[in-house]
Amino acid sequence: MIKLGAIGAGMIAGVNLEAILNFDVEVVAIANRTVSRAQALADKLGIKDALFYADYNEMIAKENLDAVLITLSHDLHLDSFKACANAGVDVIIEKPLAMTFEECEVIQELAEKNNIKACVCHTQRYNPSMATARHLMDTMDFGKVHHIDDTMSIFYYHDERADWMLSKEISGNGPMINYGVHQFDRVYFLKGALPDPKSLYAQLSYCIPEQECISAYTISGSDNDGFTYNFSFSGYSGPVLGGTDVFCENGVIRVMVGDCPRSGVFYSVDNEQFKEAPLLYENSEMYKHQFKEAVACLNGEENKAVDINWSAQMVRMIDICNESEAKETVIKDF
User: Across the strands, what pairs with 217?
Assistant: First the structure.
């Protein structure tokens, strides 16, 4: 039984804790600046006998924890990870790993120095459509991946969005890092390799006057092996819309995610007509699959959880996007 502490009691904390409770995990303590929110979350999830703290440092010091789930605002990821690592406590942390690649490198050093296990919640790859597409690529002969197009449209500025997610300084420019790391992870998860950037160009849009964060972006890039990609994000109002087209040496995969017209995976090999692949599992099981891997990671078992080294490279790509936008040019010097 893993004795787990939670740092943060916001919306995503509830989703994550509900999923992880399907496994051999006991939530023994929750730390949140507003303790009443931690208590309300525990009541909602039926977590009994948990202790509550306003200060996560106190929780880490007093509780004999095996691991901690971190779901704080992005600007607090480094400090909270440091507190856990220095106490020898394993970590599951929400993406992005940190605000910048430089901070990610500090986290990597902390994990290695303190010999802790750590993984990152990159939920999008556990979407049943994405997982099914990856399964097809692992079990059929699609050959080398040449190019990927990825689109994502999610209404970002809704009333239930936490205030810190609307702060450019605290969140890392809102959708830029919040969804940018999702899309980089989707692209390279399907490619099956870490980024090896040759060039990258990013354009950011600020079309919602009352908001300081971006409203949309487009990103194009290439790797040194000839692989190319284009992806875009829109934070304007409307239903969820998204998808990914994967162009391979021997075939094509279309991954549909969202409400229009529906989720699904379609594939063609050797120029045959498209076929629809049955999804590996229901959408409602996405977080459960993510935390099955995370728990296996904590237990030292074979797993497919996203490690901090992979996640750090996704943040590195966001740093390059920000550099491209600031300089208004293609970045080629890596």
Answer: 204, 233
Does residue 300 lie in a domain region?
Answer: no
- Tell me the C-alpha distance between 185 and 45, whole Å: 30
pLDDT band, very low/low/confident/very high, at 263 (cuts 50, 70, 90)? confident
pTM: 0.96
Residues 312 and 177 in one domain: yes
Q: Which CATH number goes with the domain that contains 96?
A: 3.40.50.720
Cα–chain center distance at 194:
15
Beta pairing partners, 3:
26
Helix/strand/coil for 19: helix
For residues 277 and 138, state if they share a domain.
yes
Where does a domain end: 78, 108, 123?
123
Tokens standing for 42? 């525990």
Tens-digit pLDDT profile for residues 284-327:
999 999 999 999 999 999 999 999 999 999 999 999 999 999 99
Q: What is the pLDDT of residues 147-186, one digit of tens each?
A: 999 999 999 999 889 899 999 999 999 999 999 999 999 9
Whether 196 is in a domain gets the answer yes
Instruction: State whether 13 and 74 are in the same domain.
Output: yes
Contact 74, 172 (CB under 8 A): yes
